[in-house]
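Tutorial, part two.
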Amino acid sequence: MKRLLLLTAAFALVALAADVTGTWKGTAETAMGKVERTFVFKVDGNTLTGETTSSMSGKSTISDGKIDGDKVEFNIAFSIQGVDVKLHYNGVVKGDQIKLHAESADGSISVDYTINKVS
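Running the prediction step on this input gives:
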């Protein structure tokens, strides 16, 4: 009985996760100008995967992604002008909009996006 209750609680938590599956787009102001970024999210339980494409750095794979209720978190890595960059994103989902903050491990890059669901 205890096992059944634990399984039911675990499934309920997964069911409460926001559904971010699909395509999202947004623009951010950076030190190098405006950057448009498209995110294609896939969700399996609490695991968030997919890819993202930007006008500045091209296509990147989403790694270490997770979703917990209305909170999302993931990493991307890319190379720009010969420099390898890894950004950690975290954000909050509100309906068809996600407010994301991305930052590099050393804090030299910090950017905020408000992205909207396209499809």
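The two ends are 41 Å apart (CA to CA). In part three we will examine how such features are distributed along the chain.
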